[in-house]
TrEMBL record, chain A:
Residues 5-256 form the ABC transporter domain. It is found in: Cell membrane. GO terms for cellular component: plasma membrane. It is a peripheral membrane protein. CDD domains: ABC_NikE_OppD_transporters (cd03257). This is Peptide/nickel transport system ATP-binding protein. It comes from Sediminibacillus albus. It comes from the Bacteria. GO terms for molecular function: ATP binding; ATP hydrolysis activity. Keywords: ATP-binding, Cell membrane, Membrane, Nucleotide-binding, Transport.
UniProtKB/TrEMBL annotation, chain B:
This is Peptide/nickel transport system permease protein. PANTHER family: DIPEPTIDE TRANSPORT SYSTEM PERMEASE PROTEIN DPPB-RELATED. GO terms for biological process: transmembrane transport. The keyword Transport applies. It is found in: Cell membrane. Pfam families: BPD_transp_1, BPD_transp_1_N. Belongs to the binding-protein-dependent transport system permease family. Residues 95-304 form the ABC transmembrane type-1 domain. It is a multi-pass membrane protein. SUPFAM superfamilies: MetI-like (SSF161098). Keywords: Cell membrane, Membrane, Transmembrane, Transmembrane helix, Transport. One of its GO terms (cellular component) is plasma membrane. InterPro entries: BPD_transp_1_N, MetI-like, MetI-like_sf.
């Protein structure tokens, strides 16, 4: 297996009021070629920050404290000079964002926004770029690509815009596509279409996907492997089958419960009590302890490492403390 | 679009009607009239009454208005009560100067303000940013007359330079004309630049926070492309609004600067006419200035729709 992307011991701090607050702590994950990898978690769990750090697009008060992000086993994206990074963005790694409504520049026609990527990453004639753009629009299922080229984002529906975002993201044939909540802002009927489209296209292009979502349904539908994030840490990491058949971390169990109860009308909707602690509220122990029904004394005092809880399955919980430690 | 412009032009009618009535009434409420300023304080009541009769000032006010406005509608703005010169050609010849002054000042202000505003926004909270903000604050708060006086003095004392005296039109002698116009334009331009700089900075900062900027960065765009092709263009609408207002105001004449540099512009014409109670000139000039202001606003609105495809007029 050749990894496309390896994140090693990534920690990110927020600098505010002349203090540092840890927002991403010691994240490790490996995405293999053609793999579809999911990160799931609530808002504030750090999943979007992780993805922005891959693109080296973290907003100013956030800084990578330590760790490596290796692209194709050689390039450390955290240390890449800006000039090199520009060649990676949109070309080797591209990204789709949550809000298709605001993710496109309102002042330029679709044509410009697609062809722009080609202009950044290659030397094509105008005619070639136009042909490639129309071809790509056809691939993302747009029925009248020629007319659409001249239209502006505000003239299109959310689903159409997300298709265009996908076209922009895939036109340079990237090795990795990061999709940050790509369907959250869309109608339910459109969501499945967009997910299918992404899966099909990446299949053809040999592109790996990093799917970031709060929706376990999206993970189940699209991903092969998954990391559950909570408060800036990976709390459970395994294959999608393992996660759904044998969840181990109390947070994962809570997440699954709150989905499962939807099909079961006899029960009330389950919800995990409390909210994700802000970086300023963190104490020494397990970050989930304050909301965990199984929390014991050790949970409040000492942060748990990732324990191996079965083949290809790791969990950050003291309940499995007897097993072998994978990493700190 | 065409229909929209026609509708806006039709709207001119009520606006200009309102302005004409307003200025007409105001001029007649203000104490003193043209007869008194011509004949002086020791004029006899009989001669005053005679002069007023000659000017038609003895008629009821509505009759005076109807007389004046019917003239205006046929393109005849009347004659100056002081000089006997026709009003409209006088306004137009002075407007030429004011227009040139405004244009050069505006261009100077854009050359200073937009690049500095962009730099300040991109380097937010650095020394560069603070420097630019101080300059813009100075631009906004230093009075025109102070800057003008200092400029004239410095040039005269240290460089033994003084601009040529006496106005010459651009098409008569471009070099001399520009020599005359450049100093007042610098003074007006720096004042305008302050406001434009602040607006550019805050507007670009606002745009840089938007999602689509992140998308463009994620595409691998160089910072130059992000800023100039996307951020600045999106930031232009509020900047254009400020510029439109500034130009509209300047086209109405700049009394103080025209006085200091002894330029025979629109501002000077109006000022003199007011002090002499030269009714026809004041009325004509105010009506003309209102017309120009409305046209500038229309122009700005049309530019909006070219800049932003979301703005359409039906």
């Amino acid at each position: 297996m050749n990894p496309v992307l390896e994140i090693k011991n990534l920690s990110i701090d927020l600098h505010a009021d002349r203090k540092k607050f840890n927002v991403i702590n010691n994240v490790n994950l490996t995405i293999n070629k053609k793999q579809k990898y999911g990160i799931v978690g609530e808002s504030g769990s750090g999943k979007s920050l992780t993805s922005l750090s891959i693109m080296n697009l973290l907003p100013a008060p956030l800084n990578i404290r330590e760790g490596k992000i290796l692209f194709e086993e050689s390039k450390d994206l955290t240390k890449l000079p800006n000039k090199e990074m520009l060649k990676v963005r949109g070309n080797d790694i591209s990204m789709i964002f949550q809000e298709p409504m605001t993710a496109l520049d309102p002042l330029y026609p679709i044509e410009h926004q697609i062809m722009e990527v080609l202009r950044f990453h290659g030397t094509y004639s105008r005619k070639q770029m136009k042909e490639l753009a129309i071809e790509m629009l056809e691939k993302v299922g747009i029925s009248r690509p020629k007319q659409l080229m001249a239209e502006y984002p505000h003239q299109l529906s959310g689903g159409m815009r997300q298709r265009i975002m996908i076209a922009i993201a895939l036109i340079c044939n990237p090795k990795l596509l990061i999709a940050d909540e790509p369907t959250t802002a869309l109608d339910v009927t459109i969501q499945a279409q967009i997910l299918d489209l992404m899966s099909d296209l990446t299949e053809n292009y040999d592109t790996s996907i990093l799917m970031i979502t709060h929706d376990l349904g999206v993970i189940a539908e699209t991903c092969e492997r998954v990391a559950v994030m909570y408060s800036g840490e990976i709390v459970e990491e395994t294959t999608v089958e393992n996660l759904f058949s044998n969840p181990t971390h109390p947070y994962t169990i809570g997440l699954l419960e709150s989905v499962k109860s939807l099909g079961d009308r006899t029960r009330d909707l389950y919800s995990i009590p409390g909210t994700v602690p802000t970086p300023k509220q963190l104490t020494g122990g397990c970050r989930f302890a304050s909301r965990c029904p199984y929390a014991t004394a050790i949970c409040r005092e000492q942060a748990p490492p990732l324990f191996s809880v079965g083949t290809d399955h790791q969990s950050r919980c003291w309940l499995y403390g007897k097993e072998e430690v994978i990493n700190g | 679009m065409y229909a929209y412009i026609m509708r806006r032009l039709l709207l001119l009618i009520p606006v200009l009607f309102g302005v004409s009535v307003f200025i007409f009434v105001i001029m007649r409420i203000v104490p003193g009239d043209v007869a008194m300023t011509i004949l002086g304080t020791d004029a006899t009541p009989e001669s005053l009454a005679q002069l007023r009769k000659d000017f038609g000032l003895d008629l009821p006010i509505y009759q005076q208005y109807i007389q004046w406005i019917t003239g205006v509608l046929t393109g005849d703005f009347g004659e100056s009560m002081r000089t006997g010169k026709e009003v409209l050609p006088d306004i137009l010849s002075r407007f030429k100067l004011t227009f040139e002054l405004t244009l050069i000042s505006a261009v100077i202000s854009w050359i200073i303000a937009i690049p500095l505003g962009v730099i300040a926004a991109v380097r937010r909270n650095t020394r560069t940013d603070f420097g630019v903000r101080i300059i813009s604050l100075l631009g906004v708060s230093v009075p025109n007359f102070a800057l003008a006086t200092v400029l004239i003095l410095v040039l005269a004392l240290f460089f033994s330079y003084s601009p040529p005296v006496g106005y010459v039109g651009f098409f008569e002698d471009p070099v001399k004309n520009l020599q005359i116009m450049i100093l007042p334009s610098i003074v007006l331009g720096t004042a305008m630049a302050g406001a434009v700089m602040r607006m550019t900075r805050s507007s670009i900062l606002e745009i840089l926070r938007q999602d689509f900027i992140r998308t463009i960065r994620a595409k691998g765009a160089k910072e130059r492309v992000v800023i100039f092709q996307h951020a600045l263009r999106n930031a232009m609408i509020p900047i254009l609004t400020i510029i439109g207002m500034q130009i509209g105001t300047l086209l109405g004449g700049t009394v103080i600067i025209e006085q200091i540099f002894s330029l025979p512009g629109l501002g000077q014409l109006v000022l003199t006419a007011i002090t002499q109670r030269d009714f026809t000139v004041v009325q004509g000039a105010v009506l003309f200035i209102a017309f120009v202001f409305v046209m500038i606003n229309l122009l700005v609105d049309i530019i909006y729709s070219y800049l932003d495809p979301r703005i359409t007029y039906k």
